[in-house]
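QA checklist item 7 of 12: single-chain prediction sanity check.
[x] sequence parsed
[x] length recorded as 258
[x] structure emitted
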Amino acid sequence: MDNQSSDLQMLRFRVRLKRLFDLARRRNLLRGTGDTGYLVHCLLGEVFGDGAPKPFHLIGRTRSGPGCQEWQEILAYSARGEKQLREYASTFADPQVHSAIDWPTFAGKAMPRQWPTGKRLGFEVRICPVVRKSEKENSKRRIVELDAYQSYRQQQAKSVSEIDGREQIYRHWLAERAEMRAARVVEMQMVQSRRTRLLRRKKNRTVERCERPDVTMRGHLEVADGDAFRSLLARGIGRHRAFGFGMLLLKPPTAGAC
């Protein structure tokens, strides 16, 4: 395996929204959703196969060029380098989905291999703070996802103590994730919290709509284990990492970043 495929890469590229929505129509995915993350997940899978970059982060829509072409910009981590991804897409991708990527702007860089213990970094991450629980339905048990805050409220329903606020619960959820043992959170705050409608495909391949918490956290952390921290970047945090959640974005450590 060469260095380009063994190093963790950060990629930045953009996709044409018209081509993205054309793909969604062909896959019958557009009805009743604004889940761009799921559509991007489908597109990347068709362009790059099993090596599709993830986790990824949706930066925002931009308008550019004649006729105000609309784009969705994306940041992503990948075990494959820029050259390897381009070659795979050129060899195997259907021309219609291949043309959805703005290839002239497709760029990548290698992330650091070493992360010294104690290194302080700023961070931002979009998370889906849910917990999985077993529930009984028609004499059968099934696994369901619950908003971490709603789950906490249910557990504390009979408690006489004051119920903690939503931000505190989400901060606790993030800090206790197993993957976060790679780093120690020094400080963080919630900068956005909303409910988002998502598309997900069930085991029988039908598509269902659901609603989940969509939260952005920002703060500072210190690296606790360099190798584990590298794995954390590559894996992402929490559930729905393949759909636009969980990518840990690093920032310079600055005073008052929160």
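[x] summary fact logged: The chain has two domains: 3-110, 120-130+160-251.
[ ] second reviewer sign-off
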